[in-house]
Design brief:
The protein is of the alpha/beta class. It is built from six helices and eight strands, in the order H-E-H-E-E-H-H-E-H-E-E-E-H-E. Strand 6 and strand 7 form a beta hairpin. About 40% of the residues are buried.
Length: about 160
C-alpha cells in the first residue's frame, strides 16, 4: 500500500537501507500475521513465507530465533540438536508474547528475522533456500518484505539447518 510506513515497519526499512539492500517494506490493510494470511494477501505459496519463531533457553534466558518456511511445523528436537554446542544442557522453550516483545522489540505476528533489540542465536530453515524469493515480517502484523533467502540468512547471521 502507498503512504508512510508505521514506525515499526519504518525501523525495518531503515535497517534494510543501512545494510545496502534495495528492498522495500510493504504494509497491507489486511493482516499478514500468520503464514496462511500472509500468503493469501501477498499471492504466494505459504512455503515462501519466512516465519520468525522465538524460543528462549530456560536457565540462561537466551533468545533463539528460528526462521522457517510457513508451510512447515518446527521440530523442536531438531532445533535443540542444532543448538547443542550453545545449549550445553540448557532446555529450549517457546517464548511467551511478553518475552518476544522485550527481546525483539516487535509483537508476535510481526517479528522480523533481523533488527531485534537483543541479538538472538538464529537458525534458518534450509527449505527456504529452494525459493528464489521469500517474504518475511517487517515489524508489524501487516508489514512484509521480499528477499532472496540466502541474502536473508546472511543478513540475519543465521546457521542454515533443517528445522522441520
Amino acid at each position: 500500500m502507498a503512504g508512510p510506513l508505521s514506525p515499526s515497519a519504518q525501523k525495518i526499512q531503515n535497517l534494510l537501507n543501512d545494510l545496502g539492500q534495495p528492498i522495500h517494506v510493504v504494509e497491507f490493510a489486511a493482516t499478514t500475521r500468520t503464514a496462511a494470511e500472509a500468503a493469501a494477501v501477498i499471492g504466494c505459496d505459504a512455503a515462501q513465507i519466512a516465519k520468525s519463531i522465538v524460543f528462549r533457553t530456560r536457565e540462561k534466558n537466551a533468545s533463539v530465533l528460528v526462521v522457517a518456511s510457513g508451510a512447515t511445523r518446527i521440530n523442536e528436537a531438531l532445533v535443540t540438536k542444532a543448538l547443542a554446542d550453545i545449549l550445553n544442557g540448557d532446555r529450549l522453550m517457546r517464548a511467551d508474547p511478553e518475552y518476544v516483545r522485550l527481546t525483539t522489540g516487535f509483537p508476535i505476528g510481526g517479528v522480523p528475522p533481523l533488527g531485534h533489540a537483543v541479538a538472538p542465536v538464529t537458525l534458518f530453515d534450509r527449505r527456504l533456500l529452494s525459493f528464489p524469493t521469500v517474504w518475511a515480517a517487517a515489524g508489524t502484523p501487516n508489514a512484509v518484505f521480499a528477499i532472496a533467502p540466502d541474502v536473508l540468512a546472511r543478513l540475519a547471521g543465521a546457521r542454515i539447518v533443517d528445522v522441520a
